[in-house]
Structures are given as structure tokens and as C-alpha cells.
Recover the amino acids of this structure.
């Protein structure tokens, strides 16, 4: 499936690449699973680029509209589990 990733024209190339890597982690959590530590590192970097909760929600919604992947369940599971856990979101949580 091909779609565009959300980004801001105000971000540097490095920031755009890092946000894309974060969303690739979201995709991986749905498709095959991702280590919690890896996903948390991607999310922390994402939050450095997008510190605003409102902007985060907007970007998550744009990504969901384009891809069908819902970011919130992945982030929630990442925050609530311990290191060593594989983050795997069930397809029913995908729209």
C-alpha cells in the first residue's frame, strides 16, 4: 500500500526522516511486532519534534486517514509495558 506520511514544512530533513521512522514503527507493531525499547526510542524522538499534544493528535489523525493505522493503541501499549516486551497490536484496532 502506498500513501504519504504526514509532515510539516517547518521540519528539517532529519526530522522528517525521524517522523517517518516513527510511523514505520507503528506499521511494524501492526504487521509483525516491534520491541518496546525500539518503539519507545522512536516515540521519544517523535515527541522532540512534535512536543504539542494537539499537534500529535492532528498528525496521528492524518496518518490514520492515509494509512488506516491507528497510532494511539501502539503508543499506549508502548508506555504501559516493560522493556523486553514485543509491541503487537491486533488488526481489529486498525480501522
Amino acid at each position: 500500500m502506498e500513501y504519504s506520511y504526514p509532515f510539516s514544512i517547518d521540519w528539517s530533513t532529519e526530522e522528517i526522516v525521524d517522523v517517518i521512522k516513527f510511523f514505520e514503527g507503528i506499521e511494524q507493531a501492526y504487521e509483525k511486532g516491534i520491541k518496546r525499547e525500539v518503539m519507545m526510542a522512536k516515540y521519544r524522538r517523535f515527541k522532540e519534534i512534535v512536543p504539542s499534544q494537539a499537534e500529535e493528535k492532528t498528525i496521528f489523525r492524518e496518518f490514520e486517514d492515509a494509512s488506516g493505522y491507528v497510532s494511539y493503541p501502539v503508543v499506549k501499549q508502548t508506555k504501559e509495558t516493560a522493556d523486553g516486551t514485543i509491541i503487537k497490536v491486533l488488526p481489529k484496532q486498525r480501522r
